[in-house]
Design the sequence.
């Protein structure tokens, strides 16, 4: 029996956009648990529902039916419990890089000087400390993504959710970002979920799930030789 702490639980969670004939089901009744120590890759093509599932796990979207819960957490998750690395641009234009990185800490009540020191340490982890005083508009897509990773790590969350974190990075930088995410998850004792279409990225994580047409399921073509983990209630 797996005795690791459950960080988030989906029970038949579905997400539909629109109504009637225009309704689009992005996620069909996903049932799964993410625990401390989990290292999960969710593979699938664009439009398969990976990002929507991550948003449900993060509490950023409400399920249309079913439920998502965070055991031991009262209400919605905070940045220091669940951190999200978004696929698209997510930095606040008016704040420089170090201010963007420190923002989750400040929102959680940490004094600005200590939040800034923590932010600079995390920027160094992703080789972005030299960008500290730049505004988001001065960054390349890859640089902005590294800063987004540092911002999540700064809050030391229990669960890290990364949506295609290497999609805008060259191979070497992408490999380094995955190194940092894995090391941070180990240090924090956190769970880590990464969505990706890159077999090299998926192969770095110990469990593989897939999304196909909005359905969470075990992947018969898992990227690593180890057997994929099976989400609870997944369709065969």
Sequence:
């Amino acid at each position: 029996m797996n005795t690791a702490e459950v960080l988030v639980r989906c029970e038949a969670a579905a997400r539909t956009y629109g109504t009637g004939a225009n309704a689009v089901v992005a996620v069909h009744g996903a049932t799964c648990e993410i625990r401390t120590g989990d290292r999960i890759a969710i593979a699938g093509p664009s439009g398969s529902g990976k990002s929507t599932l991550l948003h449900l796990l993060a509490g950023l979207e409400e399920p249309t039916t079913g439920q998502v819960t965070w055991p031991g957490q009262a209400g919605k998750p905070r940045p220091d419990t669940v951190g999200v690395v978004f696929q698209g641009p997510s930095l606040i234009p008016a704040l420089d890089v170090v201010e963007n990185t420190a923002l989750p800490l400040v929102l959680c009540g940490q004094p600005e000087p200590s939040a800034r020191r923590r932010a600079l340490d995390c920027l160094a982890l992703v080789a972005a400390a030299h960008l500290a005083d730049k505004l988001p508009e001065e960054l390349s897509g890859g640089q902005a993504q590294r800063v987004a990773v540092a911002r999540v790590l700064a809050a030391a969350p229990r669960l890290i959710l990364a949506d295609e974190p290497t999609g805008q990075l060259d191979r070497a930088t992408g490999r380094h970002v995955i190194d940092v995410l894995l090391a941070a998850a180990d240090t924090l004792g956190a769970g880590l979920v990464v969505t990706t279409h890159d077999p090299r990225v998926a192969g770095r994580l110990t469990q593989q799930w897939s999304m196909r047409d909005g359905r969470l399921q075990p992947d018969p073509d898992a990227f690593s030789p180890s057997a994929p983990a099976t989400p609870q209630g997944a369709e065969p």
